[in-house]
Request: fold
Amino acid sequence: MEIEKVGIIGTGTMGLGMAHVIAKAGIPVVAVKATPGSTDRAQQSLAGDLGKLVERGKMPAETRDEILSRITLTTSESDVAGCSLVIESVKEDLEIKSALFKRLEGIVDAECLLTTNTSTLSVTAMMSVCKERGRVAGLHFFNPAPVMSLVEVIHAFETSNHTVRKLINFCTEIGKEPVLVQDTTGFIVNRLLTPYILDAVRMLERGTGTIDAIDRAMMTGAGYPMGPFALADYIGLDVVYAMASNIYDDVRQQYCSPPHTLQRLVQLGYLGRKTSKGFYSYATKPPTPNPQLRHPVA
Ligand SMILES: NC(=O)c1ccc[n+]([C@@H]2O[C@H](COP(=O)([O-])OP(=O)(O)OC[C@H]3O[C@@H](n4cnc5c(N)ncnc54)[C@H](O)[C@@H]3O)[C@@H](O)[C@H]2O)c1
Reply:
């Protein structure tokens, strides 16, 4: 394999999901917690997710143990020195990500590829702070990373063909389906999916239907595996909000602006599944629509 060791910065939903996929393919991973504090929660979360797969008979216990043995969790960015690929997956914020790219250039060696898992931000903007720009690209995994096969490989303005080829090979080697995309806000999937989710929220605000009705309609009428509200909660409402804001900043079209209900949920810290509340409340099984949203919020 051309990529022998992978560094991941950020141990949230996507960081840990990607660590799982890459380690399962036999590649050692160094996963760096990007905010202050210990790695205990990330360790528990990783072991918990893999443990559930073992309990449900979807993964042998030996595979779980091998995956865990290949992932080193750390709090020090400098531990990605020696990696042949780094994927950053920190908060969706251009300033934070660009500053990280700048620091990474001082840590890794010249051959290391530097990539971002951003959902909607400009990879070219992150590339602009780097000296060696040919090795910078986007590597956009989907949530949940161990399940979703697509990876959008983002060709930014000065990404070299050598980098693109290596990333496409890497995706194939870890069992993913790479699709090459030019650097545009939202790439392919989120550019199409974000306005759809936002429209569902506006439909709720207009009182066209309840959360449950809209979700069920799209599942049973359009054949989608989950409706737009369940999907938004799954992605994380802060991430949906950031995607909407970034696409809106780019296209300046009203249909891409984040609706009030989404803004309010994010302001209140109701971010979907990861906080147990968003458009649905996850305190119950099965989840129930958030009672505060029973009536349209204008
Ligand atoms: N959730 C999705 O469906 C999805 C899918 C593909 C890509 N992404 C992208 O992946 C990245 C991470 O998203 P996620 O869903 O894992 O989010 P998350 O909330 O689960 O994790 C966010 C990570 O960012 C770190 N972080 C928070 N504040 C920070 C700060 N000020 N400085 C540095 N790091 C900080 C956190 O410690 C955590 O590791 C984002 O760029 C997001 O757009 C998300």
The chain has a mean pLDDT of 96. The first helix runs from residue 13 to 24. The CA atoms of residues 64 and 140 lie 24 Å apart.
